[in-house]
Inverse folding.
């Protein structure tokens, strides 16, 4: 499987956004082959993100219209996220500079919530497991960034461009 970034216009497209599908968890629980296929995709996404020096990658960025993403947590471990939900705690308080693999050489200023509570499925020992947790700091920011991709939002849509490096 060779993953390739799709143009930014595709991850912002409203029609494509509507085609992003949640993963059918019941099928994954019953069908080992489907589970394995999904695990392969998620592992490839992690490899790709590491190669590109990103902290996270959403499937939509590589043209896969499914609600899945991977991200590197504070401890440096990669987490696989399936069908994420985000519940914001408090009002947006942080204004941060963010980058995105889909917008190379650009930096955007984005408003984020400091703390969020999240719910998602992940894979542990080749089994599908549900997780609920509260996130703060970097983990919270990266999770919100990747979650935005699932709903067609990006830092270019909601943020303010503050720096654009020219390619040499
Ligand atoms: Zn991104």
């Amino acid at each position: 499987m060779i993953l390739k970034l799709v143009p930014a216009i595709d991850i912002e497209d409203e029609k494509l956004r509507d085609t992003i599908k949640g993963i059918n968890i019941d099928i994954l629980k019953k069908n080992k082959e489907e589970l394995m296929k999904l695990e392969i995709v998620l592992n490839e996404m992690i490899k790709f993100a590491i190669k590109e020096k990103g902290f996270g990658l959403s499937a939509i960025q590589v043209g896969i219209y499914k609600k899945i993403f991977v991200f590197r947590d504070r401890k440096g471990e990669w987490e696989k996220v399936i069908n994420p939900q985000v519940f914001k705690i408090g009002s947006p308080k942080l204004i941060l500079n963010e980058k995105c693999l889909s917008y190379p050489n650009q930096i955007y200023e984005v408003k984020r919530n400091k703390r969020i509570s999240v719910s998602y499925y992940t894979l542990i020992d080749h089994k599908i497991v549900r997780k609920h947790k509260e996130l703060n700091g970097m983990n919270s920011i990266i999770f919100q960034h990747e979650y935005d991709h699932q709903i067609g939002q990006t830092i270019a849509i909601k943020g303010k461009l503050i720096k654009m490096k020219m390619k040499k």
